[in-house]
Amino acid sequence: MSNGRMKVLIIGGGFGGLFCARRLGRVDVDVTLLDRAAGHLFQPLLYQCATGTLSIGHISRPLREEFARHRNVRTLLGEAVELDPGARTVTARRPDETTFTLDYDVLVIAAGMQQSYFNNAQFAAWAPGMKTLDDALSIRQRLFTAFEIAETLPPGRDRDAWLTFVVAGGGPTGVELAGQIREMATRTLANEFHSIEPEEARVLLCDGGDRVLKSFAPDLAEKATRTLQKLGVEMRMGVHVTDVRRDGVTVTPKAGGPDEVHAARTVLWTAGVEAVPFARHIAEVLGAKSDRSGRIEVDPDLSVPGHPEVFVVGDLVGRDKLPGVAENAMQGGLHVAACIRRELEGKPRRPYRYRDLGSAAYISRGNALLQVGPVRVAGFVGWLAWGFIHIAFLTGVRNRVSTVATWLATIARASRYHRAFMLGSDSMPEQRYTWSAWDAPTPPPEVQPGPGAGSPDHTPR
């Protein structure tokens, strides 16, 4: 694409990057979209993939397929790791640990946020977050494996621990996960086991606030609480999860008092977010201010102060308390594309204005919340509105049609058709690419020959 046209480099294929690249698809510029997954993920439905309602294909679409008809847009697989603002280049890392360099005239940072464990990174080993497809598949494995292991145990503390699920964080994702786990236990799995009663599974929802869904109106949050309690979710408000271990969690009341220790073999973390490492690197090399979570301070047009060629969109924008929701990322991506087009036409940029399109949260089958300005809807009507909104924003006609068909089948029957999970193999190391060397599989230790080696009882496995 070395034809003298403006080069636009977009980091991230989420809502912000996708909508920016789409709008520039027929503009006289060369666009490169760099993403570490090579696909667009519809994050608002990630929890439905984790709990077996939807498949990976329902909520994701390859970026190459999305932009196949846009000849001025190329998509590349890689993770941005270093910015040189003087040379206007970005160094990216391939999955095999080698690197390559991309140059730009305009840089759009739409890298999004990652799960935050509030300086307790060790929690991640036992409490996966909910940000990527890998997270969703990991959670699916943990959820369904927990019931399978419980089926093999006699009644007692060990079985109870496997049938106890703790969700940290009372925002939309935490509420949706907690509701889905209870619905799965009481509806989908209810008649499939012989030794256990899945309906007895405990789901604890923990949050530091005085109510769930703090971004919603209090009356809607109260309705959500009643629906969750009716489902059987145990609410733990005004507490912090202060320790996560292999076999349980410790919960500390904010107002003081003794800690609560819960034996639980499945813990899911939705309690906070922080900037990805590359965003923090961007702020450092550009001399930009950022908040505690790593959101970057920007000018009214979403460009970084002193660097009009660098834009930030989506969750990473640290301005005007913009919400970390899909609508903000979409609108930000469209705004940056409009700024680029106006520049090509010799027109000045306009400031970014976010239009609040409302919030929605799924509680259970037939129950959802929708808040759009003064309009507040809950229950069945909210559930229908929630469905229409999510279908409208799914990427690709095939994804929309297949998702609607799957939802209709799930409504008609209790089954969840995407419950398959894999436990991996212990007989041979996995041969896979990885983003960091420390994440590579550890080879099995060599077995030293000893007395009787080679007999059936001593054969290495």
Automatic annotation (TrEMBL):
UniProt keyword terms in alphabetical order: FAD, Flavoprotein, NAD, Oxidoreductase
GO molecular function: NADH dehydrogenase (quinone) (non-electrogenic) activity
Enzyme Commission number(s) of this protein: 1.6.5.9
Catalytic function, reaction form: a quinone + NADH + H(+) = a quinol + NAD(+)
Every FAD/NAD(P)-binding domain range: 6-333
Annotated stretches, region: Disordered: 435-461
Pfam families: Pyr_redox_2 (PF07992)
SUPFAM superfamilies: FAD/NAD(P)-binding domain
Matches recorded under Gene3D superfamilies: 3.50.50.100
InterPro entries, sorted: FAD/NAD-bd_sf, FAD/NAD-binding_dom, NDH-2
Family of this protein: Belongs to the NADH dehydrogenase family.
Name this protein carries in UniProt: NADH:ubiquinone reductase (non-electrogenic)
